[in-house]
Amino acid sequence: MSDSLYNPFIDLIFDDHFCFLSGDLTTESMTVFPEWLMDHFKFGEDKIEMMDKMKSYTYADLKLPCSAQVKNAFSELDEKIQAAYSKGFEGMKALDEELLFLWTGRMVYGLLYYEMAYESSRLQKIGQEFRLSESLKNRFGYFHLMLQSIIKPITFKGKKPWSIAVFKLKYSADIFSFRDDAINLLFSFGVNGFGFIACLQDNGVIGAKQKEILEKISGHVLHPLQFEELYARFHYSDYILNYAPKYKVENVEGKITIEIANSEQDAQFGFWDEDVFSQLLSNYWQVYGIQKKDILQFQKPPKSFLENPYTKDFIKPESISLPF
Length: 324
Description:
Layout: H1 8-11, E1 29-31, H2 35-41, E2 47-49, E3 56-58, E4 63-65, H3 68-85, H4 88-93, H5 97-125, H6 134-147, E5 154-157, E6 163-169, E7 176-181, E8 186-191, E9 193-199, H7 205-209, H8 211-217, E10 221-222, H9 224-240, E11 241-242, E12 247-252, E13 255-260, E14 268-269, H10 274-285, H11 292-295
Parallel strand pairs: 5-13, 6-10
Antiparallel strand pairs: 1-4, 2-3, 6-9, 7-8, 8-9, 11-14, 12-13
């Protein structure tokens, strides 16, 4: 990793006085979730809990210390995303994936930052030291480095280090749906018109594993149940993935290139346990009253709204009778 760029995971620095991205001293801040998004969907005053469920914030209260340069860079990015958003699926699909990576990465990293800062403060109060495993330090450090491409001359060489899938999606109202797993750098985003799923540091491995179903849904307007099932497949694939992303970072006269250093062949997926997956999926489908016992029944294939369990044909969204 380049020694010339700020890496808060070396010394685990999550302090309000230092810009979260550049490390510069600052008194400014920016919201974790874009202000236009919170205003449009009116969720700024809604509560979000930390992972241990002991601490909560409103979305509007989640703010990252940042330099003026970083704040301006993300403001410009927000304008591009908002313009694409106004054009619906076609606008979002036409975006360079790197812009979606940076925009999504800002929210995922912001949530990760709060988890790190909260845990560090909690342990300090009881006289304990905050620590992370070397593998997590390494992973988060590379993720942070990639985000710095919004303000630094950093480019990605060859295959991109993420999987991002954008698809058509239908809701019956102006709804904003998102799920995140900040520790595993996953995010899903859905509104009436389109949705996308992002695995922000899988080196494209999970996207490749889900290639067949992604090809099947192409051109179709997904039902929300299908959207949730698709994210569950990505999420569980990440859970059973045995793969440590590696990168080759070169700095030539201040210009940095990041290249994937290990191949898809190095990735191994563990056993797909339908019992565990059904429990995960039921958590996503619970708003429809669908429980694990409805998904996994004795002597029947697991329930799916994406594929016919016998023929593996794609299930047409219009054939699903449950409400949007």
